[in-house]
Amino acid sequence: MSSDGDALTGLWFDGQKYFAATLGREQEEKMLPVFEQADRWLDLYFNGSVPDFLPPLSIKTTEFRKAVWKILLTIPYGETRTYKEIARLVAKQKGVSQMSAQAVGGAVGHNPISLMIPCHRVIGADGSLTGYAGGLEKKVWLLSMERHSLSAGGRILS
C-alpha cells in the first residue's frame, strides 16, 4: 500500500505488473489512519463481505483513466462488465460516438489501487477472462470468491 499521508495512492499484489508505479523515489514506512481503513476494508473483502466504505483514494493520472476508474467503482461485487461496455459509457460521458475498448483496457491495466477499484471485474466482450495486471489466476480466484460469497447468501453487507 502507498499513501500521500491522507489518502490511499496505491494497493498492489506482490509482483503485479506496474507494481509501485505511483511511488515517488523517497518512501517511509509507517502506519497511517488510511492504512488502518484499508486493512479493515481488505479484512471484510477477504472474509466474503462487501465493504460498505472506501478509504479516501487519490490518484494523479489522466482524465481519461480517472473516468474509466470511476466507472469501475460502480461495478457491483460479484458482477462483471466488458471493456466494450465501459468504452460505451466513457464515450457517452465525453459526448463522442465511440471509444476504443483497447484504450479502456490500457486504463484498466494501469489501475494502481487493485481490488478497491475493481479492475478484476472487467472481462472480454465474449465473456473471456482477459489479462489482469495481478495475474490471471488471481482474477479467476477473486471473481470466484465474490460469486461464492453471493451464492452462499451469507455475509454481504448493504
Structure description:
The structure is a single chain. By secondary structure, this protein is mainly alpha-helical. The chain has 5 helices and 4 strands, in the order E-E-H-H-E-H-H-E-H. The chain has helices at about 35-45, 65-70, 85-95, 100-110, 135-150, and strands spanning about 1-5, 10, 80, 120-125. A hairpin with a 4-residue loop joins strand 1 and strand 2. The chain is globular and about 45 Å long. Residues about 155-158 have low confidence and may be disordered.
Observed structural traits:
Arc Repressor Mutant, subunit A, mainly alpha, 5 helices, 4 strands, two-stranded parallel sheet
Summarize the structure.
The protein has 5 helices and 4 strands.
